[in-house]
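Limitations
The structure tokens in this dataset are predictions for the assembled complex, not deposited experimental models. Users should treat interface geometry with appropriate caution, especially where small molecules or nucleic acid strands are included. An illustrative entry is reproduced here so readers can see what is and is not provided.
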Amino acid sequence: MEAAGYPSVDERLDVTFAALADPTRRAILARLTTGEATVLELTEPFAMSQPAISKHLKVLERAGLVTRGRDAQRRPCRLEPVALRAATEWLEGYRRFWSESFERLDGVLGDLRHNELSSAELVGDDLWTNDEQSGGAR
Amino acid sequence: MTETAMLSVAARNDHEIVMARNFAAPRDLVFAALTKPDLLRRWYGPHGHRLVVCEIDLRVGGAWRYVVRAPDGSEMVLRGTYTDIDPPGRLVQTEVNEDCWAAAGVDAIVTYELTDRAGQTLLSTTSWYPSTQIRDNVLRSGMERGLGQAYSKLDRALEPVDRWVSA
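Predicted assembly:
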């Protein structure tokens, strides 16, 4: 992708995850899950100035997590759930394939450890010396 | 699941997907589980999937071939060649997924590294793809197959502020 002029999925997600990494910004997102709000309304619960909150909002906007309304007076902030979902889902299918496979592997390994005979056949006798000395695997 | 059984998955640099997970078994057993067809058939693939073909010629230059059958009956063919075999610490193989649009016909290089952790095993898997585009597509393909709808990261991200919202 070196020649392409647009950021990779990875780079876009870096921006999103960086935006999510800050507790104030997560608090702003959590507030916005209950409905849109103005900067002033978002500032109230925090011991922070309005410019500081605006700065956080800009980071969230750049990450595509928040959009601002057109109303020049209020410019209400809204959550963009699709961007948030993309950030949470993109690795999950891949992860699920492997985490479920590996959970089954845990079971297979547990069986092997508790079945010295078949394990000895599979991987050799020397492996089980320690267990035998400590009274067996069972 | 205990903390030690947590699976980490991440995209690294422009070409790789890296995974790491701990297993409560010595390296010899984990290595066997990665290379013995009888064992692979018992664990490879998510719930409902079955490894219906598992052929392994475990020597450098030797071929391997898996056929994974999904619950809907569709099949995915994976195959490759072993390029480095050093039990119980290291296994390197090429991998072609013939049925995944994201990487059809592309050789990935998969490196398994097994590290001893006081009798347990840390298994690190690095999958290298020839381009960032292919790597990203492979990651996305999992989600488009509908395998994943988990919101755990979102839950974690929003958890610290739930109290404030409900207060």
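Some entries come with short summary sentences. For this one: Residues 9 and 90 of chain A are 9 Å apart (CA to CA).
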